[in-house]
């Protein structure tokens, strides 16, 4: 199933670093997402865009994870040649990730 | 700021509305809030990372400008209701010229027949001379700032709440700043109203949560959120901007004007809480290092969400400074193909432009070839899986050292009209100078904020 069915997401930019939140709708699915939405899978899924490391921070109090994606914005928002220099559309790419049914 | 003044001004609950989340933001929601929000403060956040550099260039061309281009329109729209309802205004619309912004605001107020308004212009964020005289390295690239000397445009430190608090204590009705940390525009009126100590780290951490949630205006009321069938948002064309009802301990209820468009839900608040955050345990601000990991988000009623539990630890000894510099040029061209075989013709067009740029010797240091509709956003791996689009837009962008070379990138796309594949239409081309930014950390004591009061 698509991650989009269990979680929602927003991206934010700072320089050449992008953050993507993954926020679980239902507390019963949070551990399942922790197991399957790993930094390695996120980096592989977004491999055409993310050139640096992917770090995951966990916020169980709000059923969320925050992924920080290094070298993901074409050298930085202010100088990138990309159409979406801010990476605002990347949250939707992550929502397309295939995960097992919980 | 003295303890006596703080005690005298302590409030039970403060209502802060948000009038803008970026420089070009819609104006009607601000008017709606000034009229119907029952606000104590209306805050406009209008400075992206690069905005102040562009404003600095404007100021060099005309010393009376360099503030937000929509300042006059915004003030003209909101001042009558704000003054009538006793709403104080705080904004970074001063950009590269807060004093000129204050004078312009005073003249708008006088034109509207509003006399006696006290407008504070906060300065001290412009540290270009300090950065030039020191030996600093960019946080991002590690390069020495001195190597960029001839290309520097601006350097502005992120000021904290203190100069804004001082201006409010002195009776300012309106406070206009240049660069200040976005959350500080919100923490300042709270510190002023509640008399919080500047070393009450947990409270300042929670206040940072409040400011962070509010600073992007419509992004917490349903903007940048809607996804039909999954996350529906009513009346986006009339999206209302948020109100924060803040208690003396910093806990906040996020809400909006009842009939305004949009929604405030746990989901909108959580998305905004993590927006542009890296390590949620250490969100570095001028006045505190905020910790978002214990934050709780609870919907109390429709369009009323309670957010509490932000914490903090002591501020650092440095302030972040955004340094802007000229970074070459970017030229770009686009053209569209549609109907059967659109993708094949678009790919052929890219091959032609790639070869033409070589043949004609356009000097680029970086080139990018996109098929809009296929791979321009997330790359070919994700984009080409099911691709048989009815229409495709070709895009070529290149980085150059001169405007002349940048123009030639777009020209080589335009020539596809008569020299490229069948049915190419709708060419657009642009060429622009690039102002890029990086940051340095400056010892706090080298930054000396102050304010000047202008009366209408």
Account of the protein in words:
The complex is a heterodimer of chains A (102) and B (456). With 102 residues, chain A is an alpha+beta fold. Chain A has a single domain (3-95), classed as Alpha-Beta Plaits, CATH 3.30.70. Chain A is built from three helices and five strands. Chain A has helices at 30-36, 39-45, 90-95; strands spanning 7-8, 11-14, 17-24, 54-59, 64-69. In chain A, strands 1, 2, 3, 4 and 5 form a five-stranded antiparallel β-sheet that branches. In chain A, strand 4 (54-59) and strand 5 (64-69) form a beta hairpin. Chain A is elongated. Chain B is α+β, with helices and mostly antiparallel strands. Chain B has two domains: 3-124 and 159-309, no CATH class; 326-436, 2-Layer Sandwich (Alpha-Beta Plaits), CATH 3.30.70. The longest helix of chain B is centred in the last third of the chain and has 18 residues, at 342-359. The relative contact order of chain B is 0.14.
